[in-house]
Amino acid sequence: MLALASCRLTGPVPSQLGRLARVQSLILQDNNLEGPIPAELANCSDLTVLTAAANRLKGTIPADLGRLENLEILNLASNGLSGEIPSQLGELSQLEYLNLMENKLQGPVPKTLADLKNLQTLDLSSNNLTGEIPEEIWNMSQLLDLALANNIFSGSLPKSEVPAEISRCQSLKQLDLSNNSLTGSIPESLFQLVDLTDLYLHNNTLEGKLSPSISNLTNLQWLVLYHNNLDGTLPNEITALKKLEVLFLYENRFSGEIPKEIGNCTSLKMIDLFGNHFEGEIPPSIGTLKELNLLHLRQNEFVGGLPATLGNCHQLKILDLADNQLSGSIPSSFGSLKGLEQFMLYNNSLQGSLPDSLSNLKNLTRINLSHNKLNGTILPLCGSTSFLSFDVTNNEFEDEIPLQLGNSPNLDRLRLGKNQFTGRIPWTFGKIRELSLLDISSNSLTGTIPLQLVLCKKLTHIDLNNNFLSGPIPPWLGKLSQLGELKLSSNQFDGSLPTELFNCTKLLVLFNETVIS
């Protein structure tokens, strides 16, 4: 064995390595080797392992490597290899693992690779391979993992007219054909691969319906079909997948209701159905998914209230139900989502006041409740000190803006416009040193612009339009050198325009109507 992984080696791979006729393992991965792979390596006739992944190798894969009849592992991933995959690799009769991912390989996949009867892993992803996927691939009976993602394949998946070929791949556990140009429907015969744990077909142009035969894949853990043209309803049979952890169907054309018993998929950790045409109510059974950490249902046509049962999903980190037709109030049970980081309910018809229990959400980083009909105080939202963005625009919130909102030093965008807030602009906003956008327009705020805002050096947009702010326009605004928009219209300012504002050389919008009375 010659093991030289992660040794910071540079320069070319020496052709003299071909003199090591008895070496069995040659491990060169994770270095900075460059240049071509020497054809002389084919003289190492006893070689069983050849790994040179994660280097800077270029040129073509030597066809002579096909003479290494004892080779079991060939890993040339993450280099800059180009040209076509040599058909001679199909002569490596003992090969169990072939990884050529993340190179610049071109042309078709050689049909001869299907002759590798012992091959368990074939990863050709992230190259520039073209043409149709050879049907012969489906004759590889020992294949466990097949990854052909991120290429330029065309044509359809193997049709259901040839189920005998695809069904011979009964050992297949992972199938990744994502990021290609595949068309047609998902063949019925694919659902005979009952050992599948991971199915990745995303970023293609597949169409048609998802077959009820999906229930055959009882070992499935990852179902990733996003960004296709799939349509129809989500079959009830999907609720039989007890091991399913990830369901990514976003950016398709699915419609109808989510199966009411989706909670039977007790292993689910992530559900993303964004950008479809799902309708009806959000199933309360989702609240039984104890491991769920992502629920993304944005941009669908859901109606009805927010299920209070979602408060039982204590592992939830991202809850995005925006851009639907949801109504009613926010359940107090949501205060139990103590790990929640992103809370998105914008563009719905929610109403009522915020439950006090939301103050328990101390890990929130992003919140957007804009464009609803919510009212009362926003104080229950201010329990976190980790906000990056905060948006409650266009609601009916009232009372004073809580001082606590200034306790998130990394808050970048703060939008409170088009509400009914009263009182002064909180001086604590000056503690938000990362603040770049402040919009508190169209409220009923009074008093002066607080001096502490001069400390927010990254401010690019300030919108205070349509309030009852008074006093002179502060000269210190001229110290905000990044300012691109300053909107102060429809207030009660007096005095003259401070000349210091002309120091803000990046200003594109200064006021936008008459400002000083």
Kindly provide the name of the CATH class of the domain at 379-517. Answer: Alpha Beta
Proportion in helices: under 10%
Structural class: mainly beta
Under CATH, the homologous superfamily of the domain at 379-517 reads: Ribonuclease Inhibitor
User: What is the strand content?
Assistant: 25-35%
Poorly predicted sequence stretches spanning 5 or more consecutive residues: 159-164
Mean model confidence by pLDDT: 94
Rg is: 30 Å
What is the number of beta strands?
A: 42
Largest sheet: 22 strands, parallel
Number of helices: 1
The CATH architecture classification of the domain at 379-517 is: Alpha-Beta Horseshoe
Distance between the termini: 85 Å
- Shape type: globular
Under CATH, the topology of the domain at 379-517 can be stated as Leucine-rich repeat, LRR (right-handed beta-alpha superhelix)
Membrane topology: Single-pass type I membrane protein
Main location: membrane
GO cellular component, one term: membrane
InterPro entries: Leu-rich_rpt, Leu-rich_rpt_typical-subtyp, LRR_dom_sf, LRR_R13L4/SHOC2-like, Plant_RL_S/T_kinase
